[in-house]
Task: inverse folding
DNA sequence: GTCTATACTCTGATAGAC
DNA sequence: GTCTATCAGAGTATAGAC
């Protein structure tokens, strides 16, 4: 990957990725068009292609930067910390990601829904390895009787499912709750309660 | 909607919807093409258009039949039943839907991810009304001290999120678990435990 | 009722002027 | 570095033969 040198190039690359994120995250890879991305970015279509060799390359650039941000909070779960505190912190940070980066969450969801054709490697590699490592930590805590004995991978799945739901199904959540609700604030309290009860030995 | 009269028409309509489900559920509405649907269905492209006036109409037909199936298990939650039993039954039935109809689950997820442009009405109407009704039931059980006091809508969201995750993120789940796992069987046990602990007063 | 042929629009990408 | 013009191919949908 060759990428930006000058200031202007950096700024334009940024503008394009921002626009691409907006479009890919709502329409998926095949549903997104360069026309749309160009319009959102306020640039001409050929200009997009000047910065990125193809539509595919834009998508790839977004996915690459995404996965890192996405896995960061899990990486930070400290094996030497207090188990419940560490897990609840992870839940909270993951929910904050959903609140602050809903488009990234939807981009990821779109990719997985489609069978992860452009992410197979990353999922089979980094992600699986990290989950394996953290599952070992969780299992260790369980064996020490510090949290309830549960299948660690499924515990992690449930954190992902519950937090991402508020970003990915935002439209549905807001429709059901109606006016005068702050979905993410309520979710924060609810998930805190849920995992406290679940983890109690 | 005018629809099938003869046997042949019924059968072909069915074949087309089946193929359309396959394609829409993996690529989203805009990402799906009539070419693909025609190929999967084993029919010619114009023949598709003979049965359905447009791509849009096929999608609509799928969404309409979907929502009903989708909400059925929630409808069946019995206000006069034993609370924990009723809720656990709902969780189990919803998980079975994810296992048996993963494409329908992904079709729905795709539509919501995109902001539900073709489902606004249904979500604001039937779905919201049903959730309101069942939330009242849950709240009643909580006030009677029969289950833990929790925000009822979020309790329902968590059932949706946890069960649908196994259909929508199937690729990820299987990659993380590796060989020799039955994700849905394990999820069944795990979610049973989770909700039992969560609902205990 | 179903197919072949085709009209017309949109899409991703390139050429070449400035 | 950025734009206008444009291409080839794919996309939805229609016309009309059988």
Result:
């Amino acid at each position: 990957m060759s990428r930006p040198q000058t200031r202007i190039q950096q700024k334009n690359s940024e503008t394009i990725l921002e626009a691409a994120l907006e479009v890919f995250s709502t329409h998926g890879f095949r549903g997104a068009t360069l026309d749309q991305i160009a319009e959102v970015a306020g640039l001409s279509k050929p200009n997009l292609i000047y910065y990125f060799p193809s539509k595919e390359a834009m998508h790839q650039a977004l996915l690459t930067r995404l996965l890192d941000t996405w896995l960061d909070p899990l990486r930070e779960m400290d094996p030497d910390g207090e188990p419940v505190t560490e897990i609840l912190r992870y839940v909270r940070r993951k929910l904050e990601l959903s609140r602050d980066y809903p488009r990234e969450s939807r981009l990821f969801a779109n990719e997985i829904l489609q069978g992860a054709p452009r992410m197979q490697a990353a999922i089979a590699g980094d992600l699986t390895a990290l989950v394996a490592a953290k599952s070992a930590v969780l299992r260790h805590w369980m064996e020490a009787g510090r949290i309830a004995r549960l299948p660690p991978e499924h515990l992690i799945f449930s954190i992902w499912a519950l937090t991402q739901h508020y970003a990915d199904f935002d439209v549905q959540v807001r429709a059901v709750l109606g006016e005068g609700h702050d979905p993410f604030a309520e979710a924060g309290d609810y998930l805190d309660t849920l995992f406290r009860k679940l983890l109690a030995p």
About this structure: Residues 8-9, 12, 43-44, 46-47, 50 of chain A lie near DNA strand D (CB under 10 Å from a C1'). The radius of gyration of chain A is 19 Å. Chain A touches chain B through 52 residues (CB under 8 Å). The domain at 62-199 of chain A is CATH 1.10.357.10 (Tetracycline Repressor; domain 2).
